[in-house]
Amino acid sequence: YINGPILRIPYKDPLTKKIQLAYFFPENLNSSINTKMQKPLERSIYKSNVFSSAMQFSGNFAAPNFGKKNIPDENIYWNQAKIVIETNNLKSLKDEVRMKIGAQNLTFEPANSNDNIDGLESQLFDYRTIAGKATFHFDINVNGSNEIKIIPIGKTSTVKMASDWNSPSFNGFVSPTERNVTSSGFTAQWK
Predict the structure, then answer these.
(1) What is the share, in percent, of the chain residues with pLDDT greater than 90?
(2) Against a cut of 0.70, is the pTM above it?
């Protein structure tokens, strides 16, 4: 699965004086996925279907609102912001993940597990340098053998998918709003 991007900004809680992490989800998240079937893997009499997928993500973050928790601006560590992308299979990534957010170019590494997130995280950046221009774009290329799951975490999320697989199963909590399955593949869209 792919769950993200998620903006993470640390702050000092004015009551406990402890450092906490605030998470912010995209205002808009658009995903475009193009999947191609590869030659099946064979072992003895068994065959396993495998695919290669190119995923493109774009969208924007609204300005983080710490006022709801009465966090004063001086308690917010804007210069220690990170972007987190959760995934359950880092081994399937084919390329380095890079994101452009505002004018910043971020690269991702496997996440440290001290906040219980499996996946990728960007280097530290100062969120104030992109405030007001928090639009983003990034690509993820993966190999897989079972399924693709995208978690629609944006306030508004759209997912478009095209594949040459002619027998898809549309599982999950939300069915496609549009789908077309033919002998040569399928297209689907979720909103």
Answers:
(1) 53
(2) yes
